[in-house]
Amino acid sequence: MGTIGVGIDILHIPRIASLVARRTPTKLATRILSPSELREWETLSPPTSSVPIPVTTNGLDAITTEKWFRFLSVRWAIKEAAYKALFPLYKPTWKDLTVSKAPADGGKPSLTLEGSVKVKLHVSVSHDGEYTVANVLAEH
Fold first, then answer.
1. HSE-CB for 41 with a 13 A CA cutoff
2. Of 6, 29, 66, 85, which sits with the fewest C-beta atoms within 10 Å of its C-beta?
3. The dihedral of CA 101, 102, 103, 109: what is its sign?
4. Domain map of the chain by residue range?
């Protein structure tokens, strides 16, 4: 396998909160999530214990919004990193990339590129406080 590229992205989660404040959570999610990610996002329930980001948006409680912002921020950062790893050979859209977690792998995220493209994507993501960082390695 040959390397296509490596991409990295860091995201300040309040940036997602700002985008949601200008729209709605559903509009942002619909814009950046693939169909399967959107279905997963729609099933999210508030976590039982969490330190919420101190933002209330569109009447939603802070715990629910924190969970949604985290979900969206992880996907945003991974997809931005993937675009950087794949460009200029490939120019995927938000919805061409799908992030999923395999329970058999301990919940490690995986990333797929839709279509007939034969690309292997390796992803690593971390979040701490108000930041999410993602790294993607793309191979043929």
1. 26
2. 6
3. negative
4. 3-139
Residue carrying structure tokens 């043929």: 140
- pTM (2 decimals)? 0.84
Give the residue among 51, 79, 76 at the shortest CA–CA distance from 66: 51
Question: Do residues 117 and 108 lie in contact, with contact meaning Cβ atoms separated by under 8 Å?
Answer: no
Domain 3-139 is found in CATH 3.90.470.20:
yes
Q: What is the pLDDT of residues 25-74, one digit of tens each?
A: 888 899 999 999 999 988 885 433 333 444 444 455 565 667 778 899 99
- SS3 state of residue 43: coil
What is the DSSP secondary-structure string of 62-97?
HHHHHHHHHHHHHHHHHHHHHHHHHTTT----GGGE
